Amino acid sequence: MAEINPTDCAERDPDTPAAQDAQAEHVVLAFLLEEHPSHLTIPELSRALNAYPNSFETNDAVERAVRELVGAGLLRCQGGDILPTRAALYFERLQPLG
User: Fold this and answer.
1) Which of 1, 39, 73, 89 could be stapled to 81 by a disulfide with Cβ–Cβ 3.0 to 4.6 Å?
2) Domains in the chain, ordered, with CATH?
């Protein structure tokens, strides 16, 4: 029986799609927590985060990150705005300062 899970390296390799998606989710959530209580739409969020805001690839990464974070209960959609949930804001307050 193998003791090493061959999929573990995929999570640590920053070039895998899964790692890139996780990084995008981290950036999106951190940015929205920093901007709270400002309300941003997905297109506004894409423009703020991307050097090439009209790129399908970068816009798609932001949309996927938002979808995953909404599914995880860390973001919510209110009208066209994307906002951190109370759980995300609470967790941010628990983070050590510095």
Assistant:
1) 39
2) 20-94 (1.10.10.10)
* Residue 81, strand partner residues: 41, 78
User: How far is Cα 62 from Cα 7, in angstroms, rounded to an integer?
Assistant: 25
The pTM score is 0.80
Q: How buried is residue 9: exposed, middle or buried, by Cβ count under 10 Å (0-12/13-18/19+)?
A: exposed
The per-residue pLDDT string of the chain (98 residues; one tens digit each, 9 = 90 and over) reads 456 555 555 556 778 999 999 999 999 999 999 999 999 999 999 999 987 667 778 889 999 999 999 999 999 999 999 999 999 999 999 987 65
* CA-based nearest residue to 65, from 14, 5, 22, 95: 22
Closest CA to 65 of 74, 54, 78: 74
